[in-house]
Amino acid sequence: MPPDHNLADYVDAPTAHRHGGPLRVGLGGPVGSGKTALAAALCRTLGAEYDLAVVTNDIYTTEDADFLRRNAVLPDDRIEAVQTGCCPHTAIRDDITANLDAVELLEARHPGLELVFVESGGDNLTASFSYGLVDVQVFVVDVAGGDKVPRKGGPGVTASDLLVVNKTDLAPLVGADLDVMRRDSATVRGDRPTLLISLREDPAATEVAAWVREQVRVRRLQQG
Ligand SMILES: Nc1nc2c(ncn2[C@@H]2O[C@H](COP(=O)(O)OP(=O)(O)OP(=O)(O)O)[C@@H](O)[C@H]2O)c(=O)[nH]1
Ligand SMILES: [Mg+2]
Questions:
Q1: Is 29 marked as a binding-site residue?
Q2: Would you say 36 is a known binding-site residue?
Q3: What is the CA(224)–ligand 2 centre distance, in A?
Q4: Which pTM value belongs to this model?
């Protein structure tokens, strides 16, 4: 790859919701940025509105699925864990078989399924989902990593359908300037949306839930 080439160019382009069945929403991002906390929040907020389910990816454990079950955000039979055993991005981009199997299992178990969240294992700024696995993808970074993160780019930051900058409550503690994060996100993402949130302060993830509702609405229109 030429050194000045943007990795985002290598992300396969969205194919206008090619899947039948539920809308599949990928939740990716660095380790600890709040992907599981966001999945839990979205399940709590949207669980009564949609027939929904979650797939979690962990490298060596089923920790995230166990967390969701423990917190009873959804009935157990709507939560599936994939143990990747390898780099998280491999299972969401290169060989997506295990994740597709998990989604299909959930679809078979719940024929009316409308919405599936697929949480990637925590990775780094180079991770992104194959659009063979998800219809839209959310990339979650956090304020604690420093306000330089958005301008460092990477396909998740630049090309995801929604960038979430989580843990804004920590900004004063780590000296992060939220205006810088907002400005740099807009610069690298163009028209793609970014939301700065704190799941600590808004455990319902109100704005992200509204974005997901809009994605479901668009999908229904496309499906006729
Ligand atoms: N202060 C603060 N902490 C948060 C917020 N959101 C999540 N956390 C905490 O951040 C830690 C990591 O959150 P997770 O949801 O497990 O992050 P993750 O991205 O799923 O982590 P991995 O799957 O291990 O990559 C947990 O201790 C959460 O309670 C937030 O908005 N503010
Ligand atoms: Mg997690």
A1: yes
A2: yes
A3: 34
A4: 0.92
Placement of tokens 């949207």 in the chain = 46
The pocket around ligand 1, CB under 6 angstroms, is made up of 29, 31-37, 64, 122, 166-167, 169-170, 198-200
Three-state SS across 53-82? Answer: EEEEEECCCCHHHHHHHHCCCCCHHHEEEE
Sign of CA dihedral 29, 31, 33, 38: positive
Rounded to a whole number of angstroms, the distance between the first and last alpha carbons of the chain is: 41
Mind listing the pLDDT tens digit for each residue in 4-56?
Answer: 434 344 344 444 444 578 999 999 999 999 999 999 999 999 999 999 999 99
User: Which numeric CATH code is attached to 20-219?
Assistant: 3.40.50.300
Which residue owns the Cα nearest ligand 1 atom 8? Answer: 34
For ion ligand 2, residues whose CB falls within 5 Å: 35-36, 64
* Location of structure tokens 């295990």: 98
User: Is 203 annotated for ligand binding?
Assistant: no
In sign, the C-alpha dihedral spanning 99, 100, 106, 112 is positive
Q: What is the CA radius of gyration of the chain?
A: 16
